[in-house]
Amino acid sequence: MYLKSLKAIGFKSFADKTTLNFEKGITAVVGPNGCGKSNISDAVRWVLGEQSAKQLRGSEMADVIFSGTEGPRGRKPTSMAEVSITIGDMDEENLKAAGVDLSFSEVTVTRRVFRDGGSEYFLNNVPCRLRDVQQLFMGTGIGRNSYSIMAQGQITQIIQSRPLERRQVFEEAAGITKFKQQKKEALRKLDYTE
Ligand code: ATP
Ligand code: MG
Q1: Per-residue pLDDT tens for 156-193?
Q2: What's the CA angle centered on 23, arms 136 and 35, to 5 degrees?
Q3: What distance in angstroms lies between residue 37's CA and the mean position of ligand 1's atoms?
Q4: Is the CB of 63 under 6 A from ligand 1?
């Protein structure tokens, strides 16, 4: 599984449609302070379903929408932010769990948010729920609560966390989170049926 490309429109500093293609291997993003490097990893987090504005270095979700620039070449704020990522070599089981057509081995996840608060998710351009996106990446280490995106200070946080919290990191790495989730859901259905 690998990150193939990322497309952002109206997301943070990416006012215009911006596409980044990632080659296999290591990619380093360099540039002066404030040019938008961290906004790229924020975009990845966000499209995977991040619900916390704080994790995205904002105070509310609408802060991810391009807020305009000042000066002679100033630009008006946009009304919508959209990010898509394409992931190649997806695991078949995860695709099935998220209800994605199996003829695709790559998947494009899209999230869109409007200033009035509405949020939309798409898998290969088909509208879906946040839950489907979460299902798709559960147990892969890529999900929103996973260890594959390490923000500043997060290593310290893991080292200082309580055993139970740290256990969740290991469980995700071992690939058992998704089974735990499935069990929880099955129990809930059983409860309901009874
Ligand atoms: P550093 O090297 O200091 O870590 P960086 O390249 O990681 O910098 P970012 O934090 O990604 O920089 O980008 C910050 C820039 O993004 C700031 O200039 C900020 O004004 C801009 N920015 C953030 N949110 C928005 C938004 N909603 N609309 C417009 N610009 C935004
Ligand atoms: Mg940064």
Answers
A1: 888 898 999 889 888 888 888 888 888 999 999 999 99
A2: 90
A3: 8
A4: yes
Q: Token pair of 44, please?
A: 């990845």
Residue 160: which domain range?
Answer: 2-193
Task: Give me the phi and psi of 133, to 5 degrees please.
Answer: -65, -45
Ligand 1 and 5: CB distance under 6 A: no
pLDDT in tens, 138-149: 878 787 667 788
Looking at the 3D structure of the chain, how many domains does it have?
1
**Prediction pTM value:** 0.85
Domain at 45, CATH number: 3.40.50.300
Take atom 20 of ligand 1 and give the residue whose Cα is closest.
13
Edge-to-edge strands, sheet with 107-114:
18-21, 2-9, 80-88, 107-114, 119-123, 126-128
C-alpha 108/C-alpha 160 separation (Å) is 35
Residue 13 CA to ligand 1 centre (angstroms): 6
Q: What is the pLDDT of residues 67-96, one digit of tens each?
A: 999 988 899 999 999 999 999 888 788 888
Model confidence at 1: pLDDT above 90: no
